[in-house]
User: What shape does this take?
Amino acid sequence: MENKILELSKKLISVPSVKGETKELNRVLETAKKELKGHFYKEYESNEVPSIIFYNTKTLPKKFKLILDAHLDVVPGNSEQYKPKVVGDKLYGRGAYDMKAAGAAEILLYKDLAKKVDYPLGLQLVTDEEIGGFNGAKYQFKKGIDADCIVVGECSSDFTVSVASKGVLWLKIDFTGVASHAAYLWEGKNPIYEMNQFLNRLWKIYPIPTKKVWETTVNVSIVGTTNETGNKVPGDASVRLDARYIPGEGEKTLKKIKSLLPKNAKVEILEFEPAMNTPESDPYVQSFIKTSEIALGKKIEVVGKNGASDLRHYPKTAGIEFGPIGAGPHTDNEWVSIKSLNVYYKILESYVLSLNRK
Ligand SMILES: [Zn+2]
Assistant: This one.
């Protein structure tokens, strides 16, 4: 199986399926369709973003028991990264780890098991996760696709299982001052100083962590003013914030940030995406941990994840993030361990089969 997964991974990696390249996004899905010839599927398209769901029942089920999900889009890489390269146990390439190799494993697993399970099993392949998943996973959800449990092959390290991930809050804050000539400061009011004071207060409450933490963090992404003149007191200033909040702290974070602002500041919410939080006690999560531990022969660690995934678009579904071993997602050095792909396949296989009613 290792070889088959490797070959299909290479095929997927060689397609530069990045945002805006609808032709390439379709091409990467074609690769999956070719592999799964004869299986039923339904295609979707929203704002030129294609996606697909394969199903093993006569008609599309009202609700799947289990969906295996993979995003086959990638963040842009350098041209060399679309030529997959094997060095020892490592497969290098854009998307090797995030998450075309996991996708390849899921496609081959679905091919092998779709007809061997006695419940509605789906394979969801989307092409816009890296830009939010609104026209892929979320669009399919809006069109009625749902499941009791979804397993996403997102990057995890050392076969950890993730059932919680942070939510995203993007804000644009505008400060208004009074413009004037720079020689006559007293006639104006420079809003950059107000913004600076706000940022200092923010920094005290949300200091920059020096290591990985499971707590709400806030990044100052962009500061600016529309002023382009050197000898002028600017009349406006603005800042963009990117907050990543742990489950349950979304509203609290927004309130906290607002409380640090001067009265005349204007807050615009650009993005407010929910956190993902499946309780560890969920029966699907529990049985996933149990079967994985048996297949792996060791204890599995359950962790919270700092990055968001498409699972947040399925708020009532038991969501599990679980991927093969690798490193360097979104970097020039992205790789996945080839050996781990086989183990990954075996773990997923035992889980998919364990959900049979028998
Ligand atoms: Zn990913």
